[in-house]
Amino acid sequence: MFYKKLFILLFFIVSCVSLSFAEISYKFTLQDLEGNKVSLSDYKGKVVFLDFWATWCPPCRASIPKVEKLYEQFKDDEDFVVLGINLQEDKDTIIKFIRKQKMNYPILLGDKKVITNYKISAIPQFFIMDKKGDIYNKYVGFTPGMEELWEKDIEKLLK
Questions:
Q1: DSSP-assigned letters across all residues of 36-100
Q2: Alpha carbons 82 and 75: distance in angstroms, whole number
Q3: Neighbours of 152 (CB within 10 A)
Q4: Quick one: how far is CA 116 from the chain centroid?
Q5: Number of helices and strands in the chain (H, E)
Q6: Each residue of 102-143: pLDDT tens digit?
Q7: Is the pLDDT of residue 27 over 70?
């Protein structure tokens, strides 16, 4: 009887911890470059590719053409979206960079809360979210060829 109660207590604790983690980690509302509010929940039912980046980051600059190619490849699939989340740079810097890099996917302005909730300690960092809004995969840093892994994840989730 003692072990049954202990099991139930531990199950309850673990359930509460994972529930609160999910609520914190996956939800955000950020502004886009035009000042519109964009929430992750706007994309419920879609596969979402999140790209956390900054203009001053060399690996970010190397990954952006690959993210753009991914965006172009899947942009006509209504069940997929790419969101770039810039890490706290000023709007003018971001806009100049986007124009120069010919970035076409939506860019959001990251804040401390999203950085903390997603535990961003290095960039670039990429998250692939499934249609339920859960993190399917996370990639830290960028190495050439990584885009093939992203593509496989996305194709699997879109099936």
A1: -EEEGGGGTTSEEEEEEE-TT-HHHHHHHHHHHHHHHHHTT-TTEEEEEEE-S--HHHHHHHHHH
A2: 8
A3: 11
A4: 13
A5: 5, 7
A6: 999 999 999 999 999 999 999 999 999 999 999 999 999 999
A7: yes
Question: What are the backbone angles phi and psi of residue 126, rounded to the nearest 5°?
Answer: -125, 135
Cα angle 118, 76, 105 (rounded to 5 degrees) comes to: 45
Q: From CA 94, how far away is CA 51, in angstroms rounded?
A: 14
Nearest alpha-carbon partner for 120 in 11, 47, 28 = 28
Are 128 and 79 within 8 A, CB to CB?
no
> Position 147: which residue type?
E
Sign of CA dihedral 60, 62, 68, 71: negative
- Give dist(CA 14, CA 114) in Å, integer: 23
The letter for the amino acid at 106 is: P
Task: For 103, list phi and psi in degrees, rounded to 5.
Answer: -85, 130
64 Cβ partners below 8 Å, 6+ apart? 51, 53, 101, 103
